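Q: How would the structure tokens look for this protein?
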Amino acid sequence: MNDEVRIIEIKKSVFEANEKDADALRDRLRKKGVFLLNLMSAPGSGKTTTLTRLINLMKNEYRIAVMDADIDSDVDARTIAETTGVQAIQLHTGGMCHLDAFMTAQGLDSIENIDDLDLIILENVGNLVCPAEFDTGASKNAMILSVPEGDDKPLKYPLMFQVCDLVIVNKIDVLPYFDFSMDKCVENVHYRNEKAEIIPVCARTGENIEEVAKWLKEQISSWKQQ
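A: Here is the predicted structure in token form.
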């Protein structure tokens, strides 16, 4: 009997392959001069509403397209296209709870006139676990944490907050009705990622969305100078 057992680290191999794909995709987008923002969150956090507000603030200055990822339906892509007028495509993941770099590249190949764009926003699948594990090839990562979810989310889902450059705290209009401390939220986010920017907003009313637009413009400008 052979006592030697061959062990294959599948997860490590998958992640390493994806990281190579992600780096290649970043190089491709840089050559085209296209900034890719990966936006993540749990379901119901207000991603689409936030994006609608953000795009309407920026679309006269930047040429924008959106990729909406979901397990099924084209609700989000239709909403973005109808409320902002920018190009929006829907990506179906076939039941998978995340996008990886290869899937992101497939989506990019479906965008019309990509060379003429300045900014592409990827609205990732609503999930706080899987999307954080896979590098999509994005220039920057952002996530939305809504007040009803609680200020302890960074403690429960550490990787999501560790990989994000920006944390948008949405639904601040309902702060009086939930046991949510903004100070504690900031403390918990910075416990996981001291470099993360934090911007509280209300996507429903548009409050502070201009601060998100300002942050994104600064990131695009800095990225172009690298």
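The mean pLDDT is 92.

The longest strand covers residues 35-41.

Upvote if useful.
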